[in-house]
Write a structure and sequence with these properties.
Elements lengths: L1 E5 L3 E5 L20 E3 L5 E3 L4 E12 L2 E12 L5 E6 L6 E6 L6 E6 L1 E5 L4 E14 L2 E14 L4 E5 L12 E4 L27
Antiparallel strand pairs: 1-2, 2-13, 3-5, 4-5, 5-6, 6-7, 6-8, 7-10, 8-9, 9-11, 10-11, 11-12, 12-13, 12-14
Length: 202
């Protein structure tokens, strides 16, 4: 279901998997420690609660993985975190996380990724792409200059904007069909009802 907010710049998609009530991200991830690794020296400001890492940064938390050239994470006194992940000319910022209660992953990339645990939102900026995958199969894909994912309300918004890769600034969404319900195994009964035909005599 698509709802056009601005016919030239923005559209909204309410739950790509229409009819699903599962939240997008794996809830158990939020209670696990956040681990950050990087090639270059980082810094930690204990007074301001700011951590900065540079050089092939990999941030993991449960099933969630974030890769970028530079990651800056801020933490408030009540334990909420916000951050910015910036890509490089060679590799853009990239994010992946398992969906709750289903064998599916959500992944996205952009020139920059912003996250905020207080508002439970992710923002992919700069020629952004977000995909839903079932195993290695691509189910849905959305592209634009800015894609915002609100995990709490299960709402995606995408805004357009001209870029070298997309001069027209149009947004695009490819939504796969819903999975068909499992069918009951075939039986030997006739499709017209009644008993099966007797076997021919020898």
């Amino acid at each position: 279901m698509l709802r056009v907010l601005n016919p030239f710049a923005c559209l909204s998609i309410l739950l790509w998997a229409l009819g699903s009530t599962a939240a997008w991200a794996e809830k158990a991830d939020r209670g696990l420690p956040m681990v950050v690794e990087a090639d270059k020296p980082g810094s930690m400001d204990m007074q301001k609660q700011i951590v900065i890492f540079n050089g092939n940064v990999v941030l993991t938390q449960g099933t969630m993985t974030l890769r970028a050239e530079r990651v800056e994470v801020r933490e408030t006194k009540d334990g909420q975190r916000s951050g910015v992940a910036t890509g490089s000319a060679a590799r853009r910022a990239w994010y992946r996380e398992k969906r709750e209660s289903v064998d599916e992953f959500l992944e996205g990339e952009g020139d920059r990724i912003e996250f905020d645990t207080r508002t439970d939102t992710l923002r992919f900026l700069g020629s952004a792409v977000v995909r839903r995958l079932r195993g290695t199969e691509l189910i849905d894909e959305i592209t634009g200059q800015l894609i915002t994912w609100n995990n709490g309300t299960e709402l995606f918004t995408v805004e357009g904007g001209a870029s070298p890769a997309n001069p027209s600034g149009r947004v695009r969404a490819v939504l796969g069909p819903r999975a068909e319900p499992a069918r009951a195994p075939a039986t030997g009964a006739s499709t017209r009802g009644g008993s099966p035909a007797p076997a021919p005599s020898r």
